[in-house]
Automatic annotation (TrEMBL), chain A:
Domain ABC transmembrane type-1: residue ranges: 16-217
Protein name: ABC transporter permease
Primary location recorded for the protein, binned into one broad class: membrane
Source species of the chain: Acuticoccus mangrovi
CC annotations in GO: ATP-binding cassette (ABC) transporter complex
Pfam families associated with the record: BPD_transp_1
UniProtKB/TrEMBL annotation, chain B:
Localization, UniProt: Cell inner membrane; Cell membrane
Pfam families registered for this protein in UniProt: BPD_transp_1 (PF00528)
PROSITE patterns recorded: ABC_TM1
Family: Belongs to the binding-protein-dependent transport system permease family. HisMQ subfamily.
The organism of origin for this protein: Acuticoccus mangrovi
CDD domains (UniProt xref): TM_PBP2
Domain ABC transmembrane type-1: 24-223
Main subcellular localisation: membrane
GO cellular component, one term: ATP-binding cassette (ABC) transporter complex
Transmembrane segments: 20-48, 60-83, 103-124, 157-182, 202-226
Protein name: ABC transporter permease subunit
GO MF, one example: transmembrane transporter activity
From TrEMBL, chain C:
Pfam families: SBP_bac_3
Record carries keyword Signal: yes
Keyword Transcription: no
Protein name: ABC transporter substrate-binding protein
Highest taxon of source: Bacteria
Cellular location(s): Cell envelope
Signal sequence, renumbered to the chain: 1-20
Protein family according to the UniProt entry: Belongs to the bacterial solute-binding protein 3 family.
Key words, A-Z: Signal
Sequence ranges assigned to domain Solute-binding protein family 3/N-terminal in this UniProt record: 25-252
Principal location listed in the UniProt entry: other
Residues annotated as domain Ionotropic glutamate receptor C-terminal: 25-251
Stored SUPFAM superfamilies: Periplasmic binding protein-like II
């Protein structure tokens, strides 16, 4: 088999695939943990307590308004500075590992974006739905779970798919803190051989991943919205994502 | 945060304030130099993607798919190493002149291609948002194709595209930080230098994040003002 | 304003010196991030052993030299692309590199060493004792290759610059770092380096470390290569080399 491959792939193909697997893990874990954190901060954002709303707004805007790579450096090198403290707290085993640091940074980052998506989706559900739920005598939190969330989920679907794709692309920065993801393995192969074509093979893998995600997501969306009429589907697509809002909002 | 940490931010030979400020200047310079590429490139790409001719439509669509899908960091490496190698190889055929693509130029080209691809989506959406009646009205008035574009379509297009373009500016501002990986002395790279010399990574990366955040906030305020201004006469819509 | 902007964005171009000029023009490529061999002082001047040796060689060859800095990862491609004419940057002469560039005779040869945090439990550096630890090295260096060959069971992390592995060794994220003994000692003797100590110096492996550190020129530039070799022999002979050696080190870095 390997004699049919370009020489660089024969030598580094397995490494690139290992890196690809690390990239998938980085993205999967961060998106998964991100959903949990984003749900919590959306809850805080819609809370009646002003300080919870503020805290959540500051977190969301801070992480959406600054570069992911700077956040990663803050967590990797910044938290690493206090390794003595983490050892006492028995947390160093976690922060010591570059992969964990990357997952932590990516989770905090994607959760902020996801929270904004969730909030927008909840607010897009017409007021009448809240009123209808309470007219049926449903308690507020049941009405929220059974009436609002299912409708909001459909509004959130498209921007959420975009966020996964953004995370795939963003995950490449993990390679700058010695995580051997797809780009990390690629850089290693390049520095060993100065063979530039290795970047093209890595680029092709990223493109395949992103395009696959995009197509799968389109199918998913078509399936979940098949009960909607074309006009409301159009409306959903047109909804622009909100620009970064000042903290005070 | 005690005094000794804050004193690290002083200006002059002892402090790092002036170094970080010089980094902010490079960061803003790169973003400002790249934005027009994204804007004009995005508009042209959108026109090509709407074109009847497949010879324009297909390459434009491939271009957008590739640069929207690739991680910005790998695009940056490909431009930085690849373009240098390509230009040197081409020029070595004719002369011994050495050509290097500077990290600033590589950043401009890579981030410009990415911004243009995303901006073309924004423009396509905005084209779709202009009511058909507007074009028909302009035709009925006997305006030429060019005048139709300039007097009727463009003003409405810009208003519709502004929120999306504003978003792209914020994304671009953050993406400039990636160019520090190929040694552009921007804010993040200079922060790293300060960290190397002082061994205070938490403090310096935190300060860098606050500076990026301040730049994002100021941009948002300006964009909000622009949007309000360009939506005059559309109150309530 | 306009000029600095153009300078920042435009491609850098430099013409090759014309052969007819009376004084040879040479562009020397170096890294500027590898103290005490080549680095920047606080006034942004290039300093170090490599730099002084380069200046002495240029003087000996009656050449006018200018220095160009380049990140380590891209230094060989840049030489081949004619960004400069020679690399004087503590580059070890290895068979892989020898295939794509030509090397002069060595101008120094020092062994690799391993640095560990002061409270480390490690007492020796063998394949067994290092088996379960994490070792840091600068990528694309003979030291990274040395670790791969001699410590196959050790997890190796590669960093773009020495600065990054120093931060991670200080925090304890990696258990040890491998680099040139002189580079590590220089760091550990400074205030920055009070986290760590030298565990041991490693024996030179000629298959990996090669005959030592040499000057790289483009393939086929035999005339330049011979001039460099003659100049190295001359400064070894006339005491200039020893003066530079003693300025930086209290032992002989030339080796046997």
């Amino acid at each position: 088999m390997s004699e049919f491959l370009p020489p660089i792939l024969a030598r580094y193909g397995d490494d690139l695939l290992d890196g690809f697997w690390i990239t998938l893990q980085l993205v999967g874990l961060s998106i998964g943990f991100g959903i949990v954190l984003a749900s919590l901060s959306t809850r805080a954002r819609l809370s009646k307590r002003w300080w919870l709303r503020w805290l959540s707004a500051i977190y969301i805007n801070l992480f959406r308004g600054t570069p992911l790579i700077a956040q990663l450096f803050l967590i990797y090198y910044g938290l690493g500075q206090f390794s003595g403290l983490w050892r006492t707290l028995n947390l160093w085993w976690f922060l010591r590992d570059p992969f964990n640091c990357a997952v932590l940074a990516f989770t905090l980052n994607t959760a902020a974006y996801q929270a904004e998506i969730f909030r927008g989706a909840v607010e897009a559900v017409p007021r009448g739905q809240w009123e209808g739920a309470s007219a049926l005598g449903l308690p507020r939190h049941i009405g929220f779970l059974k009436v609002i969330v299912p409708q909001a989920a459909i509004y959130a679907l498209r921007p959420f798919g975009n966020e996964i794709i953004l995370m795939v692309k963003g995950s490449a920065v993990a390679s700058v803190v010695t995580v051997y993801d797809l780009l990390g393995e690629t850089r290693l192969a390049f520095s060993d051989t100065f063979r530039f074509d290795v970047y093209f093979y890595a680029a092709a893998l990223y493109l395949v991943l992103v395009e696959t995600l995009r197509r799968v997501w389109n199918l998913l969306e078509a399936r979940l919205t098949r009960h909607l009429d074309p006009a409301s589907k159009q409306r959903m697509r047109r909804r622009k994502e909100s620009v970064l809002e000042p903290v005070a909002s | 945060m005690d005094d000794s940490l804050l004193s690290l931010l002083r200006f002059g030979p002892q402090g790092w304030g002036d170094e970080l400020l010089a980094g902010v200047r490079i960061t803003l310079l790169l973003a400002l130099a790249t934005a027009p590429i994204g804007l004009v490139g995005g508009f042209l790409l959108a026109l090509a993607r709407r074109s009847q001719s497949a010879r324009l439509r297909v390459p434009a669509t491939i271009f957008t798919t590739v640069f929207k899908g690739l991680p910005e960091l790998i695009t940056l490496f490909i431009v930085y190493y690849g373009l240098s190698m390509l230009l040197s190889a081409l020029l070595s055929l004719v002369s011994d002149v050495y050509v290097e693509v500077s990290s600033f130029l590589a950043g401009m080209i890579a981030l410009g291609a990415v911004s243009a691809s995303f901006a073309s989506e924004v423009f396509l959406g905005a084209f779709a948002g202009i009511p058909k009646g507007q074009i028909e009205g302009a035709e009925a008035l006997g305006l030429s194709r060019y005048a139709r574009m300039r007097k009727v379509v463009l003003p409405q297009l810009l208003r519709l595209a502004l929120p999306g373009l504003g978003n792209l500016w914020l994304v671009l501002l953050k993406d400039t930080a990636l160019v520090s990986v190929i040694a552009l002395p921007d804010l993040l790279r200079r922060t790293f230098v300060a960290v190397g010399a002082t061994k205070e990574p938490f403090f310096f990366f935190f300060v860098a994040i606050l500076i990026y955040f301040a730049m994002s906030l100021v941009s948002s305020v300006i964009l909000g003002f622009l949007e309000a201004r360009y939506s005059r006469g559309y109150a309530g819509r | 304003m306009k000029r600095t902007f153009l300078a920042a964005i435009l491609v850098a171009a430099a013409a090759l010196p014309a052969a007819a000029q009376d004084k040879m023009q040479l562009r020397i490529g170096t890294e500027g991030a590898y103290p005490p061999f080549n680095s920047f002082d606080s006034d942004r001047n290039l300093v170090g052993f490599d730099i002084d040796i380069a200046k002495a060689l240029c003087e000996e060859m009656n050449a006018e030299c200018t220095f160009v800095t380049q990140d380590w990862d891209g230094i060989i491609p840049a030489l081949r692309a004619n960004k400069f004419d020679a690399i004087i940057a503590s580059m070890s002469i290895t068979p892989e590199r020898d295939e794509i560039v030509d090397f002069t005779d060595k101008y120094y040869n020092t062994p690799p060493a391993i640095a560990v945090p002061k409270d480390s439990d490690l007492t020796e550096a063998t394949a067994e004792s290092l088996a379960d630890i994490i070792l840091g090295a600068q990528s694309s260096t003979t030291h990274a290759n040395y670790a791969e060959a001699h410590f196959p069971d050790t997890e190796l992390r590669r960093y773009g610059t020495p600065e990054e592995y120093k931060l991670d060794l200080a925090s304890g994220r990696i258990d040890a770092a491998i680099d040139d003994v002189v580079v590590l000692s220089d760091w550990l003797d400074s205030e920055d380096g009070d986290c760590c100590k030298i565990l041991t110096t490693l024996p030179i492996d000629p298959d990996i470390n090669g005959p030592g550190v040499g000057i790289a020129v483009r393939e086929g530039e035999t005339e330049l290569l011979e001039k460099f070799n003659a100049a190295i022999a001359a400064i070894r002979e006339n005491g200039t080399y020893k003066a530079i050696n003693d300025k930086y080190f209290d032992f002989d870095v030339y080796g046997d």
